[in-house]
Fold RNA polymerase subunit sigma-70.
Amino acid sequence: MTDHADEAFRAALIPVIPHMRAFARSLCGDAAAADDLVQDALAKAWQARASFQLGTNIKAWAFMILRNQFYSEKRRSWRQQPLDQEQAERTLKAYDDPHAVLELDDVRRAMALLPTEQREALIMVGAGGLPYEEVAEIVGVAVGTIKSRVSRARAALAAILADGLDSEGYVAPAAGPMAAILGQLDALRGGRQVA
């Protein structure tokens, strides 16, 4: 590629990076792993820049590279158990509106409970803003399949949030922070009353 073509490619790719990071975080569930994934995908995109046709949808092209990179890494590292860096980061931050943080955390946790196919379709269509047709092309399935996955994901997400999250001792914030703390205290005491 010429210097002009490289610069045009760079100018088209840079605005897509925040969307790639959001999609990567939804796939990985870990901020550090997501950043690594985006960095690897960007390197691959740069190496393959000659194959990209300027004027076509670079977001769909970049998402396809990112998704393929994610599944390649997942196949290679299926034996590793990563540190939950995102959880560690959340415990060290102070926020102005703790209710908004709890609600966002509920959505993140509920999204993690969705099947991978539904979660990635919902993220690409909902958060990524990609049309169904482009998501279908990225994933390699029919458009109707993507529409179905998004529909099922939305319904499941709404049901999970309506029922509250209660996996692994987590009590939904809808019960109130104090009720959640007291519930966890009761569970730790094993039902014994402490004076």
The chain is about 70% helix and 0% strand. The first helix runs from residue 3 to 13.
